[in-house]
Write a structure and sequence with these properties.
Layout: H1 17-23, H2 25-47, H3 52-59, H4 61-78, H5 88-104, H6 108-119, H7 128-157, H8 163-192, H9 198-219, H10 225-238, H11 245-254, H12 257-288, H13 299-304, H14 306-341, H15 343-361, H16 367-393, H17 401-429, E1 431-434, E2 437-440, H18 444-462
Antiparallel strand pairs: 1-2
């Protein structure tokens, strides 16, 4: 696909609508991997014996790899100069490894049994839960390895006045990818009475991630190697000594008082986001469909609730599809509104809407009401995917785009650690006895999420945007 050569002297391009759509196809595929990870990791790991707290600890893969992998890969990609570009080698490698892990994750029990047989070791040494945890860590590491360099392509190659709209197109791709990824299994069940297996859904995600990222790497051309090398030389001349990551981190936060506020806004926002992502499927299974905790259940009990669990998982997929359908629909309008009214005002309204939706979800277990509220929350989700990055892009120095996006990701990954540990532990202590058996207060995650989103709104209001 040919690129528009409407370029400025520094090699930045103004992209057409078609080129912006083409640019975001890799993120479209990446979202399949992330969506399957969100929706189906709970049922898979609970079936292998993971309690709410252990499930939370397994989810630590996302934030830990985000805090470690994204900054490292971002900084490496800033200083990578190959004929394939700066960012594309990392995008492609991440897609290949993630595709393999996506296939392996739902087959963890079989892989553990195979390893045990081959090495003549007892099954507990290579338990399915251990294999599943390893696969989750690989998936999350690869997704994080791809995200930072992918977002860095925007300040790398696209003119500043298109940064907001380009990030909105990524939000558009995330919404569309999530709708299709989450909605495929429920649609097949509704239209053809065919229940798509968990294994098949992960294979679908693996193919989408690999093919989408391959398409982006082939069709989206980075700035020429000559311009990259020129920029690298200029940056090297400006620096008398190489700074450490910690120095870069402190310099980043001190670059403007507004950068610190944006980071704090992002920190509290993502506590709220992950309260939904980590716990919603379990909330659907155990609160909406009233399936008791199956962590230590017998095979007979699991079989008794198998249909209800399957229906609840489909319901969760539908809710995430609705969330992301709304995200998909409003992503471009949010980009347009932010250009007219400013990123700050649009983001405040969007976060308020999401916080109210969360609050109402703590008060009902009605399936239709939950679906509606998830759709409303999609407005905030669309804004979260685009506007904080647009706000931050005003303060990024040329040549440090990948490192900055990696550092910024710490304020996305860090909150997830709190959710995976403290909040997961808190829910594991909130046990209740139901007619069906032992269960947990999964709805408390949305109450906590609403509170932190309101805090994020207050911080956002304190940010002073550039004119």
């Amino acid at each position: 696909m040919s690129e528009n050569n409407n370029a400025s002297s520094n090699g930045l391009r103004k992209l057409t609508t078609i080129q912006l759509l083409n640019f975001c196809l890799g993120f479209f595929g990446l979202q399949f991997a992330w969506q399957m990870r969100i929706i189906l990791s709970g049922p898979v790991t609970e079936g292998l014996g993971a309690s709410p707290f252990i499930f939370g600890l397994i989810w630590l893969a996302g934030p830990v790899t985000g805090m470690v992998v994204q900054p490292i890969i971002g900084a490496l990609s800033d200083n990578t100069h190959t004929k394939f570009g700066r960012r594309r080698p990392y995008l492609m490698l991440g897609a290949i490894l993630a595709a393999i892990a996506l296939w392996a994750f739902p087959n963890s029990a079989n892989i553990a049994q195979l390893l045990s047989n081959k090495l003549h070791l007892p099954m507990p040494v290579f338990g399915g839960l251990i294999v599943a945890a390893i696969m989750i860590w690989i998936i999350d590491a690869c997704v994080n390895a791809a995200q930072g360099p992918y977002r860095a392509l925007i300040p790398d190659n696209i003119v500043p006045e298109q940064h907001s709209i380009a990030n909105s197109y990524l939000s558009f791709a995330i919404g569309l990818g999530s709708v299709i990824a989450a909605g495929t299994a429920p649609f097949l069940k509704w239209a053809f009475n065919y229940q798509m297996s968990i294994e098949a859904q992960f294979i679908m995600a693996a193919l989408a991630f690999f093919l989408g990222m391959s398409w982006t790497c082939i069709t989206f051309k980075e700035k020429s190697a000559q311009k990259e090398n020129q920029l690298k030389t200029e940056n090297d001349n400006e620096k008398t000594e190489k700074s450490s990551f910690w120095d870069d981190f402190k310099t980043f936060l001190k670059s403007s008082p507004e950068v610190y506020k944006i980071c704090m806004m992002q920190f509290f926002t993502w506590i709220g986001v992950m309260c939904m992502f980590i716990f919603f499927t379990q909330f659907a299974i155990h609160t909406v469909f009233q399936v008791p905790d199956l962590t230590t259940a017998t095979e007979a009990t699991k079989a008794l609730y198998a249909q209800a669990t399957s229906e609840a998982t489909n319901f969760s997929s539908i809710c995430f599809a609705i969330l992301n359908l709304v995200c998909f629909i409003v992503s471009i309008p949010i980009g347009i509104l932010s250009t007219k009214f400013g990123n700050k005002k649009v983001h405040i309204v969007s976060l308020l809407i999401m916080a109210i939706a969360y609050l109402l979800m703590t008060l009902t277990a009605n399936s239709k009401a939950i679906m509606l509220l998830m759709g409303i929350a999609g407005i905030g989700w669309s804004s979260i995917l685009a506007l904080p990055f647009a706000m931050l892009s005003e303060y990024i120095q040329k040549g440090s785009e990948g490192a900055v996006m990696g550092i910024f990701n710490i304020f996305i990954a860090g909150p997830q650690v709190l959710v995976c540990t403290v909040i997961a532990w808190f829910i594991s202590k909130c046990i209740m006895q139901t007619p069906q058996g032992i269960n947990y207060h999964w709805e408390y995650s949305f109450l906590i999420g609403a509170i932190v989103l309101f805090i994020s709104v207050i911080i956002t209001n304190m940010i002073k945007e550039k004119a």
